[in-house]
User: Fold these one by one.
Assistant:
Number 1:
Amino acid sequence: MLDVRTVLCKGTLWVILLCLLVTCGTSQQLRAHRSDPSECANCVDEGVGLAGNRWTMPLLKLGEKRYYLGIFFKANWYRAAQYCRYHGMHLASINSQEENDKLEKHIRDFAGLGHEHFWTSGTDQAEEGVFFWMSTGRPVTFTNWNTGEPNNFRYENGEEEHCLELWNRDGKGLKWNDTPCSFETFFVCEVP
């Protein structure tokens, strides 16, 4: 059986471990199964993955939600969703201006990643122009679209834009954009 981590990470496992070491402190705290989550305030052991393959991930707590920034490799929307699910999370849903602003500030301030693209769980694959959060099944009610978006741009290869990303297109902050689900970019996971 193929190991999902190998397929998705393609050699970035050492980067993840380095991040955990920096975020959590000593290697004593990097156990795959943590009996005392208070040992590391920024980590959690909630991944459900395959039996015996649980991971401790560095999480960001913003308000009542906890997020994981998938910044160690880029993935298409489906692989990003698969990665989040494998680790007991799902792609993020953004339900308020406050949540959007806090997430944007962290992405912008975190190593200057505000110019990158980040997948969310938003999609209109079921019905064109009607976006919902795949992670919750709920319709998108709060929006923060870039000017002229969503536009479902059709590419020369026939591909259309059906997945929602955060993107700082015009230097005006991370706004929403619909883009082809096959594009590879960073992503934001959320703990359910």
Note: The first strand starts at residue 43 and ends at 44.
Number 2:
Amino acid sequence: MAECCNALDDDDVRLTDLFDNALEMYENIIKSDEASSSSKLQREIKNCIKLLEKTTHLINAAGVFSSNETINEVSSQNVKYLLIPALLGNLVLKVQSPDRMNALETSEIYFKDFLKRIKEYEIIDSINLEEQEDERDSIPQQMNLQQLAMQRNEKLRKYKEQKEAEAELKRLKSLMISDDDEICRNYFLKYIKNFINTSLDELHLIKQEKPLAKHLSEMRAKGTSLKMQEKDEKPNIRPLKPIIITRNEVQKKVFGAGYPSLPTMTVDEFYRERVAEGIFPAHGSSHGKVLQEMTDPEVVKQDEEREEIEKENEIETDDPNYLEKARRMDEFKDTHKRGWGNRMNRS
């Protein structure tokens, strides 16, 4: 990023370089495609936070800002430092930490400090920041169609303003190659104003998230982790129910009327369910016959006729396997008289 002023002493140059590097790092983090939990991005976030904190210490030590001054009295090269609390607030929210409550409270302090300074320096004098924050917190749970439409239009308006502001920022940034103090000042004032709605929205979300973070913090304090709680919870097991399998809809209705507590299904329904579960092969599969074919009387009759024809062919051709099987059956009949089965203990 181009520097706005060349006539600076060594300390000022070091300060402006620190901030410019931190801002460039921040913008790269925002545009990054890395997962928010990735170690690389988390390392960059923490480094950027440290850089901005160091910049803050130097600003305080140098006494860059004084009380009872407005934005018109702040030099062009110092306007950009008013962004620091907002940048830190946004970065802290992105830190992956087990103590989420601490991150929320820290971020809340940064955003409120940013908005307080904006008001004190009269950067926006026509908007009451407290009222805007209250409006976000007092959104009714149930709204009529007119209220919903108004809310939607308001969101669209803010979205449009946000896009226009981003486009203007991009345009002004392209002009930063010139060491024009006025361009530099306008760029960072636009940047600051662009962060106002972002800060208000984040404060609203922080307020909503705090109860959950507090609950999780209390659970950890009691030695109960979320994972242990999930492990103790029994999984929802599908209860076993008796199923009466019927062949057609007529039987299904009869059984359903006679056994109202038993869920019944036809063979087709049973087969479709088993196919869906992957137990039975689908229609057209080469893995055996489907249930409908196995229970169809016409199919059964055709199978019997085919077996009879095959048996006759074996007799006519003196098939060795068939003759051996017939010989064994004759021997069995000779040694086992008819009626020699279970005689019910009678001699």
Note: Strands lie at 244-246, 264-266.
Number 3:
Amino acid sequence: MGALSAGRLWVWRGLGLALLLVLVVLLLGLAGKVRQLEGRAWDKTMGELEARARTLPLPLRDELLASLVCLKLQREGGLLNAQRSGAFMRAARGALTDGQLSPGEAHRVLEAARAACGQK
């Protein structure tokens, strides 16, 4: 009877480990999906910002576009600070909510971009 209990114990341990492995795989898949969605949101926001920035007056337009290039390069290199990047994205999304980018909003986004890029 003792050997039978030990055999069942190993079965339960095996099932527990299999369940744990399945959960880990699901969590890793979910993390990958979250990262993919973040990338899409980043690309969409940056594209909208670039398009709106081109309508701004010249000195502000050039400064904002240069800061956006800096952010893209740092993001591609894995050097972008997550906290500063989040602050920039909040400022950018807030500025783009009405579909326009006023000079005042552009200045706020520019300051957030400079801070995220380490230029401040």
Note: Residues 37-117 form one domain.
Number 4:
Amino acid sequence: MGRQHQRQRRGPCRQADPGCRPDHGRGRPVSDTLAWRLGHLQETLVRENAQAPGLFGEIARMEGLLAETYRDRVPYELLQNSDDAGSHTVEITHRADGSFVWRNDGRELNAADIEALCRSASSTKQRGDSIGYRGIGFKSLAAVATRIDVRSGNIGFAFDRDRAAALLGGVPVGSVPLIRIPTDIRDEEPQPGVAFTVTRSATGTAFGTIDPIAALFLRHVGRIVTTSESGSDTLRIVRDAEPGAPPGDGGSVALHGDSGEARFAVLRHGTATVAVPLDSRAVALAGVRGRLACFLPLQDEIGLPVVVSGDLLTDPSRTHAVVADASTRQVLRDAATAIAEQLSTPGAPTFDRLWELLLDGEDIRSALLAATDTAAKVLLSALREAMASRRLPFSYSTLVLEPEDVPVLFPQGAPAALYTARNRASARAIKATLGLTTFDFNALLAGPDVPKVSAPLQTRLTEHLTELAKMHGRRLSEAERRFVESAAGPATEEPTKEAPAAVVERTPPRAPSRGEPLSEVLTRWRAAEEAARQYLNARGWDLRDVSTQNVGYDLEGTQPDGTPVRLEVKKVDRPDARFAMTNNEMSLMLGTPGGYYLAIVVGDGRYAKLVLLDPSREGLTRERVCRRWDWEFTDWARFALPVE
């Protein structure tokens, strides 16, 4: 009997592990089966413990520390592993007994993969060819599990401390790592991908729905299904990479979930990928101050409402980037370059959208003033440098421009959002921070051909030139005088004096009827608070105006059914516009749930609408804006109820 046969007799089916059975029950193990190789690995690991008796105890303690650090990252680490395996679908099933099953349809485990799971910080993946390569992700399960049963292809095995302690013979269970020795090795009916059945420990907390941001930078997974006793939630990821797209344009990603759709444009430059929110739902996911990701989301903000991802260095918890590391700084610099390229190029895929986000976001100067280097400070500093090195075909205007004026003054293109009355304050901050030049109206007027601008801009420019001349104690220049005279129009004869008109007493506007549209009400009461009060009172409400009393709301009274109600009135231009609540308003809302609502007037003219929103609704996104000490709402429109 040769050495090979003797080895087979000493193969994986040892008495100490009754869960291991011969290949397909035929009474003899076969050396070329995966079950046999796992049995051999089991023997090797048992011998290692015998040769270094204290080794497993040290590994168990390290595993405990690592697991505690990774406790909140378990679903993201498993999602990362599933994507690296080429999975298209991930299914997570939460069972009534507290256990859960994680299943994917990716590549099946081979012997090298399984050995990597058993070894500390070992992986068959290489840096750059996958999201995760450190061999840590699967071991995060030690934070929540007492047993992990694994099935992949035609093999099944488990990680179980009690069974492993029995194999080691007399070693205390507390000194045995959970994820070290494979037990219960068995052949299974073939199945695609990998499935983990996790028996949760007493301290292992359940995790809820995965943050959709985690799906943005996945390469393969297109569907994540989470099922529990309360129902099922499906997140679909639709990637659209345009063939032949210009450099840097990475197409788009749409996240379709039960709570709505979020669309992102994707930019790429060097080591960085940037996801730009294209709708209010996407902005709510990214946050007012944005997110940093190492493919999967971190807890670092970047100062802009975008999501930046790259292969950067994180701390041991995988929740924060190490900003001092060269790889992290390179990702942030590359992201800044990608953003600057779009901001400086009219007609670029996200040119207008990025300017809108930049002007709608927080004042980026606050992040630049941070005492220490943060991800936001590094990225924004790099963005400022990148913008300063570019020659822009547009500039900052001290005057508000009408939409039709923008292409007249900047024929090569300019972001319309930079010149609106709504964005005046943020435009000044952006001008100072990014070093935008100021448009010279005097040079424009001194030219041979003064372009025809809108009547509102003519009025503003006339007032500006007159005020400027008074401020400097000078007369209008010849060019300025010509413009002011042309804006005033041709001189007309002095009208003949007429007898004084009879004094007409003003009568208060009539109360609206029940069926009268909001647009008509707004023509008689321009103040949003009074228009909302009149509109609702015509529909059976009984409201009075208390806006001058500084009580934290504008209207109080009763609903048509007699229920007491308090209303804070907000006015926005469109359903995806942001609005804010002060701390006073927020504390009142939390103290009177169900009796406090926001009455939001959306738009003007014939399409104006009034909607009611309960600000305490579960799932409604609101963010604390520290520089203003208020709360900002973004993705609110889907929670609001229209008042017909």
Note: The domain at 3-208 is CATH 3.30.565 (Heat Shock Protein 90).
